[in-house]
Amino acid sequence: PAPTRLSDYRPPAWRVDAVQLDFDLGIDTSEVTARLQLRRDDAQDEPLRLDGEGLELLSITLDGEALAPTAWRYADHVLEIDGARDGSVLETRVRLKPAANTALEGLYLSGSREAGFLLTQCEAQGFRHITFFPDRPDVLATYTVTLRADRERFPILLAGGNPDGTGELEGGRHWARFVDPHPKPSYLFALVAGRLEKIERDYTTADGHAVKLVMWSEANVIDRCHYALDALERAMRWDEQTYDRNYDLDVFHVVATHDFNMGAMENKGLNIFNAKYLLADPDSTTDDEYRAVEAVVAHEYFHNWSGNRVTCRDWFQLSLKEGLTVFREQSFSADMNSAPLKRIEDVSLLRRAQFTEDAGPLAHPVRPSEYREINNFYTATVYEKGSELVRMTAGRLGRDGFRRGMDRYFERNDGRAATIEDFLTALGEANDIDLSPNLAWYGQAGTPRLKARGDYDAARHQYTLTLSQHTPPSHGQPHKQPVPIPVKLALFGHDGRMLPLHLDGQAAAGETESVVVLDQPEHSFVFRDVAEKPVPSLLRGFSAPVILECDYAPHELALLLTHDVDGFNRWEAGQQLAARAFDALRDGGDDAAPVAWCDALAALFTLAELDDALLAGLLTPPGELELADRQPDADPARIHALRQSLLQRLASRIGAAALHARYQSLAAPTELDLGAAGQGMRRLKRRVLELLALIDAERAHALAAAQYDNAHGMTDRLAALDVLVRNQATQGDAALAHFRARYDDNALALDKWFMVQAQIPGEPALARVQALEADPKFTLKNPNRARALLGTFASANPSGFHRADGAGYVLFAERLAQLDALNPQIAARLATAFNGWKRLEPVRREAAREAMAQLLGRPALSRNLGEILGNMLQ
Ligand code: B3K
Ligand code: ZN
To answer: Which residues belong to any copy of the Peptidase M1 alanyl aminopeptidase Ig-like fold domain (predicted)?
Structure first.
């Protein structure tokens, strides 16, 4: 099929103002009657065309009359109808097969036929799998939804909107109706039906609206929903306080499912969550996962305004809601937890997922210009880079200015399907600033390189910082424009103190931190009255999503690592220095960087005042994927080995005795503290144990085995298991067997059991993955399980997956083919693990290309997987 292009956008010729949906629900077959109140655009002379996929059409009437067979045609997923007028009512009745739906898009069954429940997933284009409709986000309608089903099998019936009655029907059946008064696009429609339990809470919004908050899940996990309910309440309060955004229905339902293609879905009034991002209890949830639950609950809730009340005109604008909502979630999480740590985590993710995406053949702009399968564009670029673009705008406007702009944005666009231009216009106008130059960021793929060079003129006490930018070419974009890059900076003296800044033309002279904007290819900024040759701290807080190239001497980075008061940039200096140390080991260069890195960290290690979590972050060099990005002809086995030896050097420099003593001082208290202090301790304890394992394996393994046995909570237990398994300790097998038995009926915990083993480094990984595929608990049909084993292997275990003999690729490609037949979205997503293939060394590169090309040559590949493979091979 031809790609869909942004430049081809036309407003809909036909709109739907109101929809009535009646469902007769059943596991094997369900029937849907849809009554659409149509509105025609006078300016366009187009026949009525509705989207519909995999629908068995049972009947069709227009304005109450059965349509003659010649008056409609259904081909290529489009139903075309003659004779419709403005104001016509079209009624269709279709049959669906939920239990046979393995793609988990549209109406499907979660869990077993006997005990499972029915649910829907519509974003992006699932609604057309439920009924005939103009399935595009700029068609906004009110929804009246009536669900009918057997009461015994489906005691709970839910849809988005406010409850509007329930009742009994003949033959043991019952019904429930929901009315959503807020016009919404079809992708926000949802229903759930089955046996579910709930916990609930009353909530009153700041503007005085009483709301019932309800969390639903299968009975055996309902007591694990409390943390999410608390998080929801925190998110609702935060949005009231921060943006004056109130919830707008009488009920807010949230449902957990184990069968879900992504993290969660913001359907109006009826959020649906992958259980992984909703359920939490100390025995099966790690600290990181607790924070992820809080973040995803907030993210979906925030969509109620950034996404639902103001939605997207077309799918090219996806980042309008996703980038903005990620940004809102990041600000919320920073307020709830440690802000510098949150920033470090987010930037790590950006680099690991988005920079790598941007550096490979799947690179695309935050607002892509074309796609074949929109589900392939729910990417780190649209989400994470999109959030960075909002952050830059927010930084430019300041706290109050951004709030003013957001007020304007919501007010102007409430109930509308908007564009990224609408967003920048509202924010700009509310502040009398022209934000249109920011659009350049949205249209260009690739991560800009920011070069910085400093010159100190000792005689004139003048420091000149010359910044230049360059964005490498990407497919279809050979030449890039300069983009406005805000660089937040400070200058440090040799004693580690910040120097006052006197920048020409800058108002706040004498401050120690300032922002300069580079909006041209190159520019020099001159600082006066600089008493000594400074060390610049650049891009503080990661003020722009760029790759900074600055030829710091190792001791300068060490100075920032030791003294920078910007928690993020302190970590960042350590990352830069570690990367330099890595390069030195790889190239046999001089020892200055490794020595500076180890010395600085060894000194920080003994500093009592440093936050445990930050110290753990400082002790972690960039990951193997990021390191691979820094060089052509990457050999993942060698990168793994070099990174290990770098860590070993660090461990030796700190010393086994100091590591051991620190470990003991962090050993678990009897009560599990889920607060920041407890989380920080566990994070550092794990890091210390991992380092100790590199220089005193026997002792570390014994400590890990004991930690496993005595652990309070999943964080310590999983950390210990991971240390044992990755290092192939003799105690590993017993711990794995124990974990397996203990969590036999806990799907989310078992996923971790698969993940730990999928990350065994190097050669042994493949055989382990193959053995685990034969495990009775392994299935390709459950996305979480498939991701846990195959996704982890291919995306998070470079030395295991990228074998020189190509056997990892062959196995993975085979599984992708099988998965594609079941669930194209998941197959396409997992396939992106190949995205970095062009930067591999020649032998692996050829093996990867061969595996992908063979896969692409198979018959009946989905549009999803076909597009991803085609793009990667282009
Ligand atoms: N909007 C959904 C993602 C839908 C993905 C469709 N393939 C979740 C979120 O971003 O909040
Ligand atoms: Zn989202």
So the answer is: 446-550
Residue nearest to atom 1 of ligand 1 (CA): 265
Ligand 1 atom with the smallest distance to the CA of 383 is 10
843, containing H or E segment: helix 842-856
Residue 589 has pLDDT above 90, yes or no: no
Does the beta carbon of 266 lie inside 6 Å of ligand 1?
A: yes
Is 138 a pocket residue for ligand 1 (Cβ < 6 Å)?
Answer: no
Between the CA of 381 and the centroid of ligand 2 the distance, in Å, is: 13
Inter-residue contact 257 to 274 (CB < 8 Å): yes
Task: Give the CATH H-level superfamily of domain 749-874.
Answer: Peptidase M1, alanyl aminopeptidase, C-terminal domain (1.25.50.10)
| Best mutation site among 257, 378, 382 for ligand 1 pocket (most ligand atoms within 8 Å of CB) | 378
Specify the pLDDT at position 509.
74
What is the phi/psi pair of residue 105, to 5°?
A: -135, 135
CA distance linking residue 428 with residue 409, whole number of Å? 10
At the fourth CATH level, which superfamily is domain 311-443? Answer: Neutral Protease Domain 2 (1.10.390.10)
Which residue puts its alpha carbon closest to atom 8 of ligand 1? 265
- What are the structural domain ranges in the chain? 1-195, 201-304, 311-443, 449-544, 749-874
The verdict on whether 170 is a catalytic residue reads no
What is the rounded CA–CA span in Å between residue 419 and residue 63? 35
Catalytic residue from among 300, 345, 357, 626 = 300
Closest residue by Cα to atom 2, ligand 1, is 265
Fold agreement between 1-195 and 449-544: yes
Look at 410-419, 581-590, 663-672, 822-831 and tell me which has the smallest mean pLDDT.
663-672
For 861, phi then psi, to 5°, come to -70, 150
CA of 351 to the centre of ligand 1 (A): 21
In whole angstroms, what is the distance from residue 621 CA to residue 618 CA?
7
CA-wise closest residue to 259 among 88, 109, 146 = 109
Backbone angles phi, psi at 361, to 5 degrees: -65, -15
pLDDT mean over 683-710: 98
Would you say 132 and 52 are in contact if contact means Cβ atoms under 8 Å apart? yes
Q: Which CATH number fits domain 449-544: 3.30.420.10, 2.170.270.10, 2.30.30.100, 2.60.40.1840?
A: 2.60.40.1840
Model pLDDT for residues 596-633, shown as the tens digit of each residue: 999 999 999 998 788 999 999 999 999 999 999 888 99
* Tokens (6 digits) for 789: 């084993």
pLDDT digits (tens, 9 = 90+) for 427-444: 999 999 999 999 999 999
CA of 197 to the centre of ligand 1 (A): 25
What is 1-195's CATH superfamily?
A: tricorn interacting facor f3 domain (2.60.40.1730)
pLDDT number for residue 668: 65
pLDDT of residue 507: 60
CATH class, 201-304 region: alpha beta
Whether the per-residue pLDDT at 296 is higher than 90: the answer is yes
- Return the exposure string of 362-375: e unless at least 16 CB atoms fall within 10 Å of the residue's CB, then b: bbbbbbbeebbbbb
